[in-house]
Amino acid sequence: DPLHEELEAAGCVYQERLGWERPGWFTKHGPVHVKAYDWYGAYGNLRHTEHGYKERLNLDYTFDHPEIHENIRAECLSTRTAAGLFNMSYFGKFYLTGPDARKACDWIFTNKMNAAPGATIYTCMLNKNAGIEADLTVSVIDSGAGGSADPSFQGDGYYIAAAGGAAFQNLAHIQTVVQDAGFNVDISDRSRDMGMLSIQGPKSRDILSRLTDAPLDNESFPFSTNRMIEVAGHKVRALRVSFVGELGWELHIPSESCVPVYRALMEAGAEDGLVNAGYRAIDSLSIEKGYPHWHQEVRMDDSPLEAGLLFTCKLKTDTDFLGRTALEEKRKLGARKKKVCFTVDDNVCLLGLEAILRNGEYVGHIRRADHAFLLEQEVAYGYVMNNGEKITQDWLKSGEYEIESKGKIYPATLHLKSPFDATNKRIQGNYEEPTQESLISMERARASAI
After folding, report:
1. Which of 89, 180, 231, 331 has its CA 20 to 30 A from that of 315?
2. How far is CA 325 from CA 124, 126, 322, 398, 402, in A?
3. Residue 141: left if φ>0, alpha if ψ -120 to 50, beta else—which one?
4. pLDDT tens digits, residue range 56-80?
Protein backbone atom coordinates (compact mmCIF):
# COMPACT_ATOMS: atom_id res chain seq x y z
CA ASP A 1 0.00 0.00 0.00
CA PRO A 2 1.66 3.27 -1.05
CA LEU A 3 0.03 5.07 1.88
CA HIS A 4 0.90 2.59 4.63
CA GLU A 5 3.48 4.65 6.51
CA GLU A 6 1.50 7.87 6.06
CA LEU A 7 -1.68 6.41 7.54
CA GLU A 8 0.13 4.42 10.21
CA ALA A 9 1.53 7.75 11.48
CA ALA A 10 -2.05 9.09 11.53
CA GLY A 11 -3.14 6.29 13.88
CA CYS A 12 -4.44 3.76 11.35
CA VAL A 13 -5.11 0.23 12.55
CA TYR A 14 -5.04 -1.99 9.49
CA GLN A 15 -7.08 -5.02 8.49
CA GLU A 16 -5.95 -7.78 6.16
CA ARG A 17 -7.97 -9.14 3.25
CA LEU A 18 -6.52 -11.90 1.07
CA GLY A 19 -2.96 -10.69 1.57
CA TRP A 20 -3.77 -6.99 1.09
CA GLU A 21 -3.82 -4.49 3.91
CA ARG A 22 -6.54 -1.89 4.22
CA PRO A 23 -7.38 0.68 6.91
CA GLY A 24 -9.72 -0.72 9.53
CA TRP A 25 -10.13 2.25 11.85
CA PHE A 26 -8.18 5.16 13.30
CA THR A 27 -7.10 5.54 16.92
CA LYS A 28 -6.98 8.89 18.71
CA HIS A 29 -3.98 7.98 20.87
CA GLY A 30 -1.16 8.05 18.37
CA PRO A 31 0.34 5.39 16.13
CA VAL A 32 1.39 1.89 17.08
CA HIS A 33 3.87 0.61 14.52
CA VAL A 34 3.48 -2.77 12.87
CA LYS A 35 6.38 -4.97 13.92
CA ALA A 36 8.20 -7.37 11.62
CA TYR A 37 6.85 -10.90 11.75
CA ASP A 38 8.68 -12.83 14.48
CA TRP A 39 7.88 -16.37 13.30
CA TYR A 40 6.88 -17.14 16.90
CA GLY A 41 10.57 -17.18 17.79
CA ALA A 42 11.48 -19.84 15.20
CA TYR A 43 14.30 -19.81 12.64
CA GLY A 44 16.60 -17.78 14.87
CA ASN A 45 14.16 -14.87 15.28
CA LEU A 46 13.54 -13.16 18.60
CA ARG A 47 9.94 -13.50 19.72
CA HIS A 48 8.21 -10.19 20.46
CA THR A 49 7.38 -9.68 24.12
CA GLU A 50 5.15 -6.65 23.57
CA HIS A 51 2.33 -6.52 21.02
CA GLY A 52 0.88 -3.01 21.05
CA TYR A 53 -0.56 -3.42 17.57
CA LYS A 54 -2.14 -6.76 18.45
CA GLU A 55 -3.80 -5.11 21.44
CA ARG A 56 -5.35 -2.53 19.11
CA LEU A 57 -6.64 -5.29 16.84
CA ASN A 58 -8.17 -7.11 19.80
CA LEU A 59 -10.33 -4.06 20.54
CA ASP A 60 -12.47 -5.07 17.54
CA TYR A 61 -12.64 -8.83 18.22
CA THR A 62 -15.94 -9.41 19.97
CA PHE A 63 -19.47 -10.67 19.37
CA ASP A 64 -20.85 -7.44 20.79
CA HIS A 65 -20.38 -3.79 19.82
CA PRO A 66 -16.60 -3.36 20.10
CA GLU A 67 -14.62 -1.03 22.31
CA ILE A 68 -13.92 1.05 19.19
CA HIS A 69 -17.65 1.61 18.57
CA GLU A 70 -17.30 5.34 19.20
CA ASN A 71 -14.31 5.57 16.83
CA ILE A 72 -16.44 4.08 14.08
CA ARG A 73 -19.34 6.37 14.99
CA ALA A 74 -17.09 9.44 14.73
CA GLU A 75 -15.79 8.40 11.29
CA CYS A 76 -19.29 7.62 10.00
CA LEU A 77 -20.98 10.78 11.25
CA SER A 78 -18.07 12.95 10.09
CA THR A 79 -18.56 11.48 6.61
CA ARG A 80 -22.32 12.05 6.74
CA THR A 81 -22.04 15.65 7.99
CA ALA A 82 -18.68 16.88 6.57
CA ALA A 83 -16.30 14.55 4.69
CA GLY A 84 -14.32 11.36 5.09
CA LEU A 85 -11.20 10.24 3.22
CA PHE A 86 -10.95 6.49 2.60
CA ASN A 87 -7.81 4.71 1.42
CA MET A 88 -9.15 1.96 -0.87
CA SER A 89 -5.84 1.21 -2.56
CA TYR A 90 -6.24 -2.53 -2.12
CA PHE A 91 -8.88 -2.52 -4.89
CA GLY A 92 -8.08 -4.45 -8.04
CA LYS A 93 -7.41 -2.17 -11.02
CA PHE A 94 -7.63 -3.81 -14.43
CA TYR A 95 -7.70 -2.62 -18.04
CA LEU A 96 -9.45 -4.51 -20.81
CA THR A 97 -8.50 -3.13 -24.24
CA GLY A 98 -8.10 -4.16 -27.85
CA PRO A 99 -10.01 -4.96 -31.05
CA ASP A 100 -12.66 -7.12 -29.34
CA ALA A 101 -12.87 -5.14 -26.10
CA ARG A 102 -16.42 -3.95 -26.70
CA LYS A 103 -17.67 -7.42 -27.67
CA ALA A 104 -15.92 -8.95 -24.68
CA CYS A 105 -17.46 -6.45 -22.26
CA ASP A 106 -20.92 -6.94 -23.77
CA TRP A 107 -20.58 -10.67 -23.05
CA ILE A 108 -18.85 -10.49 -19.64
CA PHE A 109 -20.89 -7.72 -17.99
CA THR A 110 -24.64 -7.65 -17.46
CA ASN A 111 -25.17 -3.91 -17.92
CA LYS A 112 -25.15 -1.97 -21.18
CA MET A 113 -21.61 -1.22 -22.34
CA ASN A 114 -22.51 0.88 -25.40
CA ALA A 115 -21.55 4.11 -23.65
CA ALA A 116 -19.17 6.84 -24.75
CA PRO A 117 -15.79 7.33 -23.07
CA GLY A 118 -16.32 9.05 -19.75
CA ALA A 119 -19.12 6.76 -18.56
CA THR A 120 -18.73 4.67 -15.40
CA ILE A 121 -21.12 1.73 -15.22
CA TYR A 122 -22.16 -0.29 -12.18
CA THR A 123 -22.64 -3.87 -13.32
CA CYS A 124 -22.59 -7.53 -12.39
CA MET A 125 -20.72 -10.46 -13.84
CA LEU A 126 -22.60 -13.76 -13.91
CA ASN A 127 -21.72 -17.40 -14.40
CA LYS A 128 -23.68 -19.65 -16.77
CA ASN A 129 -26.21 -20.39 -14.01
CA ALA A 130 -26.89 -16.64 -13.51
CA GLY A 131 -25.01 -16.65 -10.20
CA ILE A 132 -23.35 -13.35 -9.34
CA GLU A 133 -19.58 -13.64 -9.79
CA ALA A 134 -19.04 -9.94 -8.98
CA ASP A 135 -20.59 -6.51 -8.73
CA LEU A 136 -18.19 -3.74 -9.70
CA THR A 137 -17.70 -0.60 -11.79
CA VAL A 138 -16.47 -0.50 -15.38
CA SER A 139 -15.34 2.85 -16.81
CA VAL A 140 -15.23 3.52 -20.55
CA ILE A 141 -11.97 5.34 -21.30
CA ASP A 142 -10.02 6.90 -24.16
CA SER A 143 -6.42 6.03 -24.95
CA GLY A 144 -4.15 8.22 -22.84
CA ALA A 145 -0.55 9.30 -22.33
CA GLY A 146 0.69 5.87 -21.28
CA GLY A 147 0.64 6.21 -17.49
CA SER A 148 -0.86 3.74 -15.04
CA ALA A 149 -4.01 5.87 -14.71
CA ASP A 150 -4.25 6.81 -18.42
CA PRO A 151 -2.78 3.94 -20.47
CA SER A 152 -2.20 4.09 -24.21
CA PHE A 153 -3.95 1.40 -26.28
CA GLN A 154 -5.52 0.56 -29.63
CA GLY A 155 -9.25 -0.03 -29.99
CA ASP A 156 -11.80 0.34 -27.21
CA GLY A 157 -10.75 0.61 -23.58
CA TYR A 158 -12.36 -0.22 -20.24
CA TYR A 159 -11.10 0.31 -16.71
CA ILE A 160 -12.37 -2.19 -14.15
CA ALA A 161 -12.28 -1.37 -10.42
CA ALA A 162 -12.90 -4.47 -8.31
CA ALA A 163 -13.21 -4.73 -4.53
CA GLY A 164 -9.89 -5.98 -3.19
CA GLY A 165 -11.20 -8.96 -1.26
CA ALA A 166 -12.56 -10.45 -4.49
CA ALA A 167 -10.21 -8.85 -7.03
CA PHE A 168 -8.21 -11.96 -7.92
CA GLN A 169 -11.41 -13.98 -8.28
CA ASN A 170 -12.86 -11.25 -10.52
CA LEU A 171 -9.72 -11.17 -12.67
CA ALA A 172 -9.66 -14.95 -12.97
CA HIS A 173 -13.30 -14.97 -14.06
CA ILE A 174 -12.66 -12.32 -16.73
CA GLN A 175 -9.61 -14.15 -18.04
CA THR A 176 -11.46 -17.47 -18.17
CA VAL A 177 -14.45 -16.01 -20.02
CA VAL A 178 -12.20 -14.21 -22.51
CA GLN A 179 -10.20 -17.37 -23.16
CA ASP A 180 -13.30 -19.55 -23.57
CA ALA A 181 -14.87 -17.09 -26.02
CA GLY A 182 -11.65 -16.42 -27.93
CA PHE A 183 -11.83 -12.61 -27.76
CA ASN A 184 -8.84 -10.66 -29.10
CA VAL A 185 -8.19 -8.38 -26.12
CA ASP A 186 -5.44 -7.37 -23.74
CA ILE A 187 -6.03 -7.66 -19.99
CA SER A 188 -3.66 -5.68 -17.82
CA ASP A 189 -3.45 -5.81 -14.01
CA ARG A 190 -2.21 -2.45 -12.68
CA SER A 191 -3.32 -2.99 -9.08
CA ARG A 192 0.17 -2.52 -7.65
CA ASP A 193 0.89 0.53 -9.79
CA MET A 194 -1.94 2.67 -8.44
CA GLY A 195 -3.49 3.67 -5.16
CA MET A 196 -7.05 4.84 -4.64
CA LEU A 197 -8.43 7.52 -2.35
CA SER A 198 -12.16 8.09 -2.02
CA ILE A 199 -13.36 11.43 -0.67
CA GLN A 200 -17.00 11.32 0.37
CA GLY A 201 -19.47 13.60 2.11
CA PRO A 202 -21.32 16.93 1.83
CA LYS A 203 -18.07 18.92 1.82
CA SER A 204 -16.20 16.69 -0.65
CA ARG A 205 -16.84 18.92 -3.68
CA ASP A 206 -15.68 22.04 -1.82
CA ILE A 207 -12.50 20.33 -0.67
CA LEU A 208 -11.59 18.77 -4.00
CA SER A 209 -12.31 22.00 -5.90
CA ARG A 210 -9.51 23.72 -3.96
CA LEU A 211 -6.99 21.35 -5.56
CA THR A 212 -8.19 21.12 -9.17
CA ASP A 213 -9.26 23.40 -12.00
CA ALA A 214 -11.68 20.76 -13.30
CA PRO A 215 -15.35 21.73 -12.91
CA LEU A 216 -17.06 19.45 -10.40
CA ASP A 217 -20.68 20.59 -10.63
CA ASN A 218 -23.42 18.09 -11.49
CA GLU A 219 -23.68 19.23 -15.09
CA SER A 220 -19.94 19.19 -15.82
CA PHE A 221 -19.13 16.07 -13.81
CA PRO A 222 -22.32 14.04 -13.26
CA PHE A 223 -22.67 10.90 -11.16
CA SER A 224 -21.43 7.68 -12.84
CA THR A 225 -18.81 9.41 -14.98
CA ASN A 226 -15.02 9.49 -15.02
CA ARG A 227 -12.25 11.66 -16.41
CA MET A 228 -8.57 12.46 -16.02
CA ILE A 229 -8.03 15.56 -13.89
CA GLU A 230 -5.15 17.17 -12.02
CA VAL A 231 -5.29 17.19 -8.23
CA ALA A 232 -2.58 19.21 -6.48
CA GLY A 233 -0.59 19.07 -9.71
CA HIS A 234 -0.83 15.27 -10.11
CA LYS A 235 -2.77 13.49 -12.85
CA VAL A 236 -5.42 11.13 -11.49
CA ARG A 237 -8.46 9.35 -12.86
CA ALA A 238 -11.48 10.64 -10.98
CA LEU A 239 -14.67 8.54 -10.81
CA ARG A 240 -17.82 10.20 -9.50
CA VAL A 241 -19.17 7.22 -7.61
CA SER A 242 -19.89 6.34 -4.00
CA PHE A 243 -19.95 3.18 -1.90
CA VAL A 244 -21.28 5.02 1.16
CA GLY A 245 -24.22 6.95 -0.32
CA GLU A 246 -22.69 10.42 -0.36
CA LEU A 247 -21.52 13.06 -2.81
CA GLY A 248 -17.96 12.10 -3.63
CA TRP A 249 -15.19 10.96 -5.93
CA GLU A 250 -12.82 8.05 -6.16
CA LEU A 251 -9.34 9.20 -7.16
CA HIS A 252 -7.30 6.48 -8.89
CA ILE A 253 -3.73 7.67 -8.49
CA PRO A 254 -0.33 6.53 -9.75
CA SER A 255 1.50 5.09 -6.73
CA GLU A 256 4.22 7.73 -6.76
CA SER A 257 1.58 10.49 -6.45
CA CYS A 258 -0.48 8.96 -3.63
CA VAL A 259 1.30 10.59 -0.68
CA PRO A 260 1.36 14.16 -2.06
CA VAL A 261 -2.30 13.91 -3.15
CA TYR A 262 -3.29 12.53 0.26
CA ARG A 263 -1.44 15.28 2.10
CA ALA A 264 -2.95 17.98 -0.11
CA LEU A 265 -6.48 16.65 0.48
CA MET A 266 -6.04 16.51 4.25
CA GLU A 267 -4.65 20.04 4.31
CA ALA A 268 -7.37 21.41 2.04
CA GLY A 269 -10.09 19.69 4.05
CA ALA A 270 -8.93 20.64 7.51
CA GLU A 271 -11.21 23.69 7.74
CA ASP A 272 -14.23 21.59 6.72
CA GLY A 273 -13.62 18.76 9.18
CA LEU A 274 -12.25 16.13 6.76
CA VAL A 275 -11.28 12.97 8.66
CA ASN A 276 -9.47 9.75 7.91
CA ALA A 277 -11.90 6.84 7.86
CA GLY A 278 -11.48 3.09 7.50
CA TYR A 279 -13.32 -0.01 6.39
CA ARG A 280 -15.18 -0.46 9.66
CA ALA A 281 -16.84 2.85 8.78
CA ILE A 282 -17.38 1.74 5.17
CA ASP A 283 -19.10 -1.41 6.42
CA SER A 284 -21.53 0.66 8.47
CA LEU A 285 -22.10 3.44 5.93
CA SER A 286 -22.65 1.05 3.03
CA ILE A 287 -25.20 -1.12 4.81
CA GLU A 288 -27.01 2.00 6.06
CA LYS A 289 -27.37 3.04 2.41
CA GLY A 290 -28.13 -0.48 1.19
CA TYR A 291 -25.05 -1.10 -0.96
CA PRO A 292 -24.08 -4.80 -0.90
CA HIS A 293 -20.79 -6.54 -0.23
CA TRP A 294 -20.04 -9.35 -2.65
CA HIS A 295 -19.53 -12.58 -0.64
CA GLN A 296 -22.12 -11.46 1.91
CA GLU A 297 -25.40 -10.01 0.57
CA VAL A 298 -24.58 -11.24 -2.94
CA ARG A 299 -22.72 -14.44 -3.82
CA MET A 300 -22.28 -16.94 -6.61
CA ASP A 301 -25.43 -18.78 -5.50
CA ASP A 302 -27.58 -15.64 -5.78
CA SER A 303 -29.02 -14.24 -9.02
CA PRO A 304 -29.73 -10.57 -9.82
CA LEU A 305 -33.44 -11.44 -9.64
CA GLU A 306 -33.09 -12.60 -6.04
CA ALA A 307 -30.59 -9.92 -5.01
CA GLY A 308 -32.52 -6.93 -6.34
CA LEU A 309 -29.94 -6.23 -9.06
CA LEU A 310 -32.02 -6.75 -12.19
CA PHE A 311 -31.53 -3.05 -12.93
CA THR A 312 -27.92 -3.89 -13.83
CA CYS A 313 -29.01 -6.35 -16.53
CA LYS A 314 -29.61 -5.39 -20.18
CA LEU A 315 -32.65 -7.65 -20.54
CA LYS A 316 -34.54 -5.05 -22.59
CA THR A 317 -31.88 -5.22 -25.32
CA ASP A 318 -31.00 -7.95 -27.80
CA THR A 319 -27.41 -8.08 -26.54
CA ASP A 320 -26.52 -11.47 -25.10
CA PHE A 321 -24.39 -11.86 -21.99
CA LEU A 322 -23.07 -14.76 -19.97
CA GLY A 323 -25.85 -16.09 -17.74
CA ARG A 324 -28.69 -14.34 -19.60
CA THR A 325 -30.48 -17.54 -20.63
CA ALA A 326 -30.48 -18.90 -17.08
CA LEU A 327 -31.54 -15.50 -15.68
CA GLU A 328 -34.50 -15.25 -18.05
CA GLU A 329 -35.63 -18.74 -17.03
CA LYS A 330 -35.44 -17.77 -13.37
CA ARG A 331 -37.39 -14.61 -14.12
CA LYS A 332 -40.20 -16.59 -15.76
CA LEU A 333 -40.51 -18.82 -12.70
CA GLY A 334 -40.25 -15.96 -10.22
CA ALA A 335 -37.85 -15.58 -7.29
CA ARG A 336 -37.94 -18.39 -4.72
CA LYS A 337 -35.82 -16.36 -2.33
CA LYS A 338 -35.45 -12.59 -1.98
CA LYS A 339 -32.95 -10.24 -0.38
CA VAL A 340 -34.64 -7.85 2.03
CA CYS A 341 -33.66 -5.26 4.61
CA PHE A 342 -34.52 -5.20 8.30
CA THR A 343 -33.97 -2.66 11.04
CA VAL A 344 -33.98 -3.48 14.75
CA ASP A 345 -34.57 -0.82 17.40
CA ASP A 346 -33.39 -2.86 20.38
CA ASN A 347 -29.86 -2.50 21.73
CA VAL A 348 -28.42 -5.64 20.16
CA CYS A 349 -25.33 -6.30 18.04
CA LEU A 350 -26.23 -8.24 14.89
CA LEU A 351 -23.35 -9.92 13.07
CA GLY A 352 -24.85 -12.12 10.34
CA LEU A 353 -26.24 -15.68 10.27
CA GLU A 354 -29.08 -14.76 12.67
CA ALA A 355 -32.41 -16.48 11.99
CA ILE A 356 -35.24 -14.53 10.34
CA LEU A 357 -38.73 -15.36 11.62
CA ARG A 358 -41.94 -14.48 9.78
CA ASN A 359 -45.09 -14.92 11.85
CA GLY A 360 -43.03 -17.05 14.22
CA GLU A 361 -41.63 -19.42 11.56
CA TYR A 362 -38.08 -19.59 10.22
CA VAL A 363 -37.88 -18.22 6.66
CA GLY A 364 -34.18 -17.49 6.21
CA HIS A 365 -31.14 -15.96 7.82
CA ILE A 366 -29.21 -12.71 7.88
CA ARG A 367 -26.22 -12.46 5.54
CA ARG A 368 -24.78 -9.16 6.81
CA ALA A 369 -25.55 -6.72 9.62
CA ASP A 370 -24.03 -3.65 11.22
CA HIS A 371 -24.94 -0.60 13.25
CA ALA A 372 -26.11 2.42 11.24
CA PHE A 373 -25.05 5.52 13.13
CA LEU A 374 -27.20 8.18 11.46
CA LEU A 375 -30.30 5.98 11.65
CA GLU A 376 -29.11 4.84 15.10
CA GLN A 377 -30.38 1.32 14.44
CA GLU A 378 -29.08 -2.11 13.61
CA VAL A 379 -29.49 -2.73 9.89
CA ALA A 380 -29.47 -6.26 8.50
CA TYR A 381 -29.83 -7.83 5.05
CA GLY A 382 -30.84 -11.40 4.47
CA TYR A 383 -32.75 -13.72 2.16
CA VAL A 384 -36.24 -14.99 2.91
CA MET A 385 -38.01 -18.02 1.42
CA ASN A 386 -41.66 -19.13 1.23
CA ASN A 387 -41.47 -22.94 1.32
CA GLY A 388 -40.31 -23.05 -2.29
CA GLU A 389 -43.13 -20.81 -3.52
CA LYS A 390 -42.73 -17.58 -5.48
CA ILE A 391 -41.90 -14.56 -3.34
CA THR A 392 -44.39 -11.71 -3.88
CA GLN A 393 -44.58 -8.17 -2.53
CA ASP A 394 -47.87 -8.98 -0.83
CA TRP A 395 -46.34 -11.98 0.94
CA LEU A 396 -43.40 -9.89 2.12
CA LYS A 397 -45.55 -7.02 3.37
CA SER A 398 -48.13 -9.18 5.14
CA GLY A 399 -45.75 -10.79 7.62
CA GLU A 400 -44.62 -9.85 11.10
CA TYR A 401 -40.86 -10.24 11.41
CA GLU A 402 -38.41 -11.03 14.18
CA ILE A 403 -34.69 -11.77 14.28
CA GLU A 404 -33.15 -14.32 16.63
CA SER A 405 -29.73 -13.37 18.01
CA LYS A 406 -27.82 -15.44 20.58
CA GLY A 407 -30.97 -17.10 21.85
CA LYS A 408 -33.14 -13.99 22.09
CA ILE A 409 -35.93 -12.81 19.76
CA TYR A 410 -36.08 -9.17 18.66
CA PRO A 411 -38.87 -7.43 16.71
CA ALA A 412 -37.70 -6.33 13.25
CA THR A 413 -39.07 -3.91 10.67
CA LEU A 414 -39.03 -4.98 7.00
CA HIS A 415 -37.92 -2.44 4.37
CA LEU A 416 -38.40 -3.01 0.64
CA LYS A 417 -36.26 0.06 -0.08
CA SER A 418 -33.26 1.45 1.74
CA PRO A 419 -34.32 3.18 4.96
CA PHE A 420 -31.63 5.79 4.27
CA ASP A 421 -31.92 8.27 1.36
CA ALA A 422 -33.91 5.93 -0.89
CA THR A 423 -34.24 8.68 -3.53
CA ASN A 424 -30.44 9.19 -3.82
CA LYS A 425 -30.54 12.92 -3.11
CA ARG A 426 -27.24 12.87 -1.25
CA ILE A 427 -25.11 11.39 -4.03
CA GLN A 428 -26.37 14.26 -6.22
CA GLY A 429 -25.21 16.76 -3.60
CA ASN A 430 -28.72 17.66 -2.44
CA TYR A 431 -28.40 17.96 1.33
CA GLU A 432 -30.47 19.21 4.18
CA GLU A 433 -28.71 20.74 7.15
CA PRO A 434 -27.46 18.03 9.54
CA THR A 435 -29.65 17.66 12.60
CA GLN A 436 -28.41 19.00 15.89
CA GLU A 437 -28.77 15.50 17.29
CA SER A 438 -26.36 14.04 14.70
CA LEU A 439 -23.80 16.79 15.31
CA ILE A 440 -23.96 16.26 19.08
CA SER A 441 -23.62 12.49 18.59
CA MET A 442 -20.57 13.05 16.38
CA GLU A 443 -18.87 15.32 18.93
CA ARG A 444 -19.58 12.86 21.74
CA ALA A 445 -18.15 10.05 19.64
CA ARG A 446 -14.99 12.02 18.93
CA ALA A 447 -14.57 12.71 22.63
CA SER A 448 -15.13 9.04 23.52
CA ALA A 449 -12.97 7.54 20.76
CA ILE A 450 -9.92 5.57 21.90
Report:
1. 180
2. 15, 11, 8, 32, 36
3. beta
4. 889 999 999 999 999 999 999 999 9
